[in-house]
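@channel sequence for tomorrow's demo:
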Amino acid sequence: MLVHSSERRQNKQVLFRLNSGKEVVGTMDGPQISSLGGIILLGEIEKTLNLIRGAAASLLDWRQRPTYSLHFLLLQRVLLICAGLEDGIDSNYYRYDPAVLTALGLSVSAERLASQPTLSVMENKMRAKNCYRLAMFLLTFYISSRRSVPKEIVLDFDGSCFPVHGDQQGSCYRGHYETDMYFPLLVFDQDGWLITAILRPGNHGEARIVIPVLKRIVPAFRKAWPGVRIVVRADAGFNDPKIYDWCEDQGQENPKDTVYYVIRMKRHPRDNGIDVLIKRSKVQVKRTFRRRFGTEKYLGDAGKKQKNGDQTEILMLSKDQRKEELVRMAARKARGFCELFYRAGQGRKQWRSDRRVIAVLDHLDTGDEQMYLVTNIQQDPPRYLYEQRYCQRGKAEYFIHELKSLHATRLSCQDFWANQFRLLEHTLAYLLLFKLRDLLPPESRRMSLSSVRENIVKVAVVVKEYKRKIVLQWTSHYFWKRPFLAICRELGCMSLRC
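structure tokens (generated this afternoon):
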């Protein structure tokens, strides 16, 4: 923790007994040093994007005589979250940090950050109206940030467990996760951009409020990009006929406005004729497996024990041998596809029409496995629909993991809307780091956001303030110097002397 210049009244020496030949002396009068030297890059990105400025402008300020603007408070909060300092109390520890002050455009020697009580008041005063306005800004910012008109946008819907450790409003115990939690709805595009994050109580279902969110996202996309193809992709938790009906209804006037969907089904289609068709396909896949690999190894309870024993032996091998054996074990699989049209449910819960269902039939050493997808995409063959469309949904799990790496689960306010606003603050931090990673050289863009934070943002810097300029000095032995300078070059910060 840095000591402000006004607090260095007594500069006492500290004597250490570490060297028998020389005296080891320590003082507290060194130069201004920060461990967050890369946070200045985030401040420069904000200057270019105006992401936080636009977010603050979308909010209604209720204060009469504020000391700090909403833009300043929001930017300070988001920058510290990007640096891994997600708790409000961290603002007190870093009130005089020279790198953070520089990133905020302040004087290093004469100014300071807002305190934790100030930030807590801001978060707890945010109500539903401001949260809605900020969420709508994130949608409009996503549209305006696209450099070209997209031909297709894939929306990955998913929910996630955000544990709580108190009696926060709206939190609820969920037996599947065995914890008290919130259950937010997260919407990513195919590239990992977080379009919106809606906080939901812990007892809400997966498909809850999906249609209201679609009613805001889809018209905005249609208005900005007429004719864009929109695909909704989700797992079995979103297997709701109301979602299917809404997506199909968008194309009643113009078929090009149809919202396409690829969603996993929860249950096996139940129909005598369909059962016969699927059974025949399973027999063909089983024959293919035995023709390629012979008989199954791990059938029944005895087979499960044998599989566990074989895996234990494989894990004891060397790295190369272990990798080779695991690949060989995973390759013992035959896959087939079956396409059918099916109407699920009975009575009022019955689908209003037959819909295309893709059966993915696998046969392994442990026996049969199957998965079913429901879709209104008619032209794509089953294999392409599953492997190139649905399987890409797994990236959304990785994107959620990256959001959680920013400690987005720290929703410790007592009020529900304060926690919703805090989740949106973490969304802004996610987007800033996302843009920072995009500025890295191509070979470094595979880094996770947590690695970007640890390697690029959290780097030591010496800050020297003069009358006419502020000088930043990073160590010459900085391992990530080239990617760091590449970001500066992309931001237009490189001088001719560099």
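heads up for whoever presents: Residues 150-266+398-411 form one domain.
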